Amino acid sequence: MKDLTFETLLAVFEEIFGPTLFWVMVVAAVVITLGYLYVLIRDRSVSWRKFLFAQLSMPVGAVLAVWFVMVMTKSRLSDLGGPIDVILFLGIAAAGALGMAVFVYTVESLLGSKRTLEGGTDAKPN
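Above: the chain's sequence. Below: its structure in token form.
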């Protein structure tokens, strides 16, 4: 493998996750991203109440992402071989945290909840 190409990355990810699961994850990521963009355009502002709740979910997303990759690659923490593995795991955790925050914010904005619908707006009362 002399060059790192897009086709090589696709092949590697399909080998790790299997073609069906990989493409389901890609479609889910696209749908959630489009939903997030729709919510931002529709609301024309960020709801700080929903944003805080989304941030509180980020550690869960980080842990789940690392766990998911470890399960799919059949590895353990003792298999970490050096600094690049730690950097990769931190990147996976960061991606999982960000993905969970976007997912939670989008779902809460689209479905709403009693907690966020009662307040109406995030502005402080006079």
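Residues 6-113 form one domain.
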